[in-house]
Amino acid sequence: MFKSQIGVIGAGACDERVSRIAEAVGREIAKRGALLVCGGLGGVMEAAARGAKEEGGTTLGILPGSSRDAANRYIDIAVLSAMGHARNVLIAQSCDALIAVDGEYGTLSEIAHALKMGKPVVLLESQWEIKGAHVAHDPAGAVEMAFGLI
Amino acid sequence: MFKSQIGVIGAGACDERVSRIAEAVGREIAKRGALLVCGGLGGVMEAAARGAKEEGGTTLGILPGSSRDAANRYIDIAVLSAMGHARNVLIAQSCDALIAVDGEYGTLSEIAHALKMGKPVVLLESQWEIKGAHVAHDPAGAVEMAFGLI
Amino acid sequence: MFKSQIGVIGAGACDERVSRIAEAVGREIAKRGALLVCGGLGGVMEAAARGAKEEGGTTLGILPGSSRDAANRYIDIAVLSAMGHARNVLIAQSCDALIAVDGEYGTLSEIAHALKMGKPVVLLESQWEIKGAHVAHDPAGAVEMAFGLI
Amino acid sequence: MFKSQIGVIGAGACDERVSRIAEAVGREIAKRGALLVCGGLGGVMEAAARGAKEEGGTTLGILPGSSRDAANRYIDIAVLSAMGHARNVLIAQSCDALIAVDGEYGTLSEIAHALKMGKPVVLLESQWEIKGAHVAHDPAGAVEMAFGLI
Predict the structure, then answer these.
(1) Which residues of D touch B83 (CB under 8 A)?
(2) Are D84 and B85 a contacting pair at CB < 8 A?
(3) Distance of residue C150 Cα from the nearest chain B Cα, in angstroms
(4) Does B1 have pLDDT greater than 90?
(5) Element of type H or E holding D6
(6) Rounded to whole angstroms, how far apart are CA atoms D79 and D63?
(7) pLDDT over threshold 90, residue B23
(8) How many angstroms separate the CA of residue A86 from the nearest CA in chain B?
(9) pLDDT in tens, B32-50
(10) pLDDT-derived band at A1, boundaries 50, 70, 90
(11) pTM
């Protein structure tokens, strides 16, 4: 079993700058030998998975729908929830720690679920300030913080 | 069918002051003939359901577990999700509008899911400030706002 | 709270004969003061809900999708799961006993979930023979059997 | 991405004979380069995962609970659903084909969900006879049949 399963959460569409940050987060997670978990779609999810694959890592995408075709091409293993928003709960539950990169309401729901479950959450480029979540200032720092909090 | 299904969300334990607010919210919802939806447990959920019953309303509790015994005694109809935190998604999805009274991480997850689904959210006594959610200052105002936003 | 919550499960489309049987089952459930739980759509679900309403009963529909418009017009309270097939688990979990009228694979999944949960299941006009499920030969007998097994 | 994701479903406890059959099924799946998906617990799930690991395969366990400690030691990647019986739906949904080895009510629910989703189901040592499900007589034949039906 992978010793750690780390989630990277964020919006399904993002600009180039946020994409580069998510990619760097994915690379750092793979370098440490952890499984990268994400929602399997585009934007931050795709950038993080791409980063993990660049470092030879393994990626798990937990998708909202019922088709593997919806997964981005950096996903190794696809869990098809066909449960829409409830897949956010599955992501939070399946990770030892979560790193949120930017993000909108969907990301906020995952942050809240993870905190409710008592899991470490690290925020990067977040619009939200949430009691109990940790704030990082760069990808390497976020990943180091996440592993330190497990 | 009930013309409207209104959710009251909040923590499973709360002080007397918050309880009175939640009860008043439940009463206002029942007065308008809507179904009160909540998580079916204690605290804000129980107070809101009690308020609705005082006005002759009907209450639906969507519970996290698998036993009807866990429901508070003001719940008319119990949906047993046995899905833990994912029941929060069911609550958000099943309501036309949600009113959050105080609340912690579980409530925050419901607010986020509801906003993601495009449903109106009204905050009362909230520690969170969330773009897109509306802030009310008293129970009657919160319920009026919720109905106005449907 | 309703003292009993009884599920009527079956296909979303059915012929006139099966429809009349489901309607009679719904009537008998309402006569006994129990809540009728179903999947909220057409066919057996609609017929059972119609029967319950004819006797002044109350009906809960747990729907697979996210829109109340999909509910048949005899549903009083709609739970919108937006979880597709997983809503079948919610139906089984929320009932004290289930009565299957005819039915296809979806119904079979509900029967299996209910038996796994240790809940009484009564089959009427079923193509399946399943160890542990009880077989009834008419609507009144099925409902009497279900209440007797709770 | 794995070209195929094949589920092996069956009871959480089984005798030595059924265990050897499930292990052989797991080996055959891994030999063909597919991901083995299972419920992550003991019995048939553990035997199938052990077989896949013997051939250097990769295993995904979709668990009913919230703790990775509940996974058997042959699981590489654990999805923690914390959704109880609804995790059966996730297993069916995430596979291209499913092979049921023996099995009780939980297995029957997965078979029914998979058939409802239009996915190929192969039965080995099954107590059930279900229209639409295919019957195999040995592990290699079951796996060949499953791949042929995708």
Answers:
(1) 82-84, 86
(2) no
(3) 14
(4) no
(5) strand D5-10
(6) 6
(7) yes
(8) 6
(9) 999 999 999 999 999 999 9
(10) confident
(11) 0.97
Strand partners, D134: D122
Query: Rounded to whole angstroms, how far apart are CA atoms B6 and A141?
Result: 43
Cross-chain Cβ contact A83/B85 below 8 Å: no
Q: How do beta strands C97-101 and C5-9 pair?
A: parallel
Taking the C-alpha atoms of residue A147 and residue B22, their distance in angstroms, rounded to an integer, is 40
Q: In this structure, which amino acid lies at residue D25?
A: V
Length of chain D equals: 150
Contacts of A84 in chain C (CB under 8 A): 66, 82-83
- Decide: residue D102, CB within 10 A, 0-12 exposed, 13-18 middle, 19+ buried: buried
Each residue's pLDDT tens digit, A25-72: 999 999 999 999 999 999 999 999 999 999 999 999 999 999 999 999
Ordered structural domains, chain D, with CATH: 5-149 (3.40.50.450)
Chains touching chain B through at least 3 C-beta pairs below 8 angstroms are: A, C, D
Q: From start to end of D42-142, where are the E strands?
A: 59-63, 77-80, 97-101, 121-124, 134-136
CB contact under 8 A, B109 and A105: no
B86/D83 CB distance under 8 A? yes
- What the block records as the tokens of C140 is 């009144």
Q: How close C4 gets to chain D, by Cα (Å)? A: 22
Chain A residue closest in CA terms to D80: A94
C-alpha angle with apex D68: D64 to D73, nearest 5 degrees?
105
Sole residue written with tokens 């709960």: A89
Q: Is the ipTM of this complex over 0.90?
A: yes
The CA distance from B126 to A143, in Å, is 31
